[in-house]
């Protein structure tokens, strides 16, 4: 591991600490510093894109995420963040396309729930219901896994994740027009 990689990793750690404190400007600066050492550092590019979104800089986020997509195509989280940046820019149809791609690439509960929300933003009620209906069985499995983990570990984090996910399931049932 070369000195440049060590410095990039150090800057990445500083950026992560700033993100944990919700200091998105400082985290973005640290991620940019990491990229000065390692211009193709996928982790720094991803985190810089996310920090730009959190800092209300969607156009700058799109530039970073576009570069990341060139280096590492087919990564659902890039599509999710790109979709979020498009929402911030008011380009809902493009956001829909990116969230559809994220759900296709990685069929996990958050991708389907978020796709339902974006369909709603775009006035596509049928698509929203379909996304929520896809989300529900996936989320149920997720909740059961977290219940088992919480019981096994007495883990408050797993329990709070489970409660949050249960609330999302209730919301999805309501939005899909299905009795729980």
- Estimate the strand proportion: under 5%
- Beginning-to-end CA distance, first to last residue: 53 Å
Radius of gyration: 18 Å
State the low-pLDDT regions, or none.
none
What's the shape?
A: globular
Q: Count the strands?
A: 0
- Annotation field: number of helices: 9
Order of helices and strands: HHHHHHHHH
Oligomer: single chain
Major β-sheet, in short?
Answer: none
Determine the structural class based on helices, strands and strand pairing: mainly alpha
Share of residues in helices: over 70%
Average pLDDT works out at: 88
Walkthrough of the structure:
The protein has helices at 3-20, 24-37, 42-54, 58-71, 76-89, 92-105, 109-121, 125-153, 156-176. The termini are far apart. Helix content is 83%, strand content 0%. It contains 9 helices and no strands. Helix 5 (76-89) packs antiparallel against helix 6. The protein has 180 residues and is mainly α.
Strand-helix topology:
Layout: H1 3-20, H2 24-37, H3 42-54, H4 58-71, H5 76-89, H6 92-105, H7 109-121, H8 125-153, H9 156-176
Summary tags:
mainly alpha; globular; 180 residues
Structure summary:
The chain is mainly α. It has helices at 3-20, 24-37, 42-54, 58-71, 76-89, 92-105, 109-121, 125-153, 156-176.
């Amino acid at each position: 591991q070369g000195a440049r990689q060590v410095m990039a990793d150090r800057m990445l750690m500083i950026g992560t600490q700033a993100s944990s404190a919700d200091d998105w400007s400082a985290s973005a600066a640290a991620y940019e510093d990491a990229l000065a050492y390692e211009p193709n550092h996928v982790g720094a590019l991803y985190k810089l894109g996310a920090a730009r979104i959190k800092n209300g800089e969607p156009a700058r986020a799109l530039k970073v995420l576009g570069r990341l997509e060139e280096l590492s195509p087919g990564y659902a989280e890039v599509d999710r963040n790109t979709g979020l940046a498009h929402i911030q820019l008011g380009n809902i149809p493009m956001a829909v396309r990116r969230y559809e791609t994220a759900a296709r690439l990685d069929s996990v509960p958050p991708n389907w729930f978020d796709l339902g929300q974006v369909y709603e933003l775009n006035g596509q009620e049928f698509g929203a219901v379909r996304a929520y209906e896809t989300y529900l069985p996936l989320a149920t499995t997720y909740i059961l896994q977290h219940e088992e983990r919480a019981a096994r570990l007495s883990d408050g984090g797993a329990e709070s994740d489970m409660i949050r996910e249960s609330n999302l399931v209730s919301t999805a049932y309501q939005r899909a027009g299905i009795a729980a």
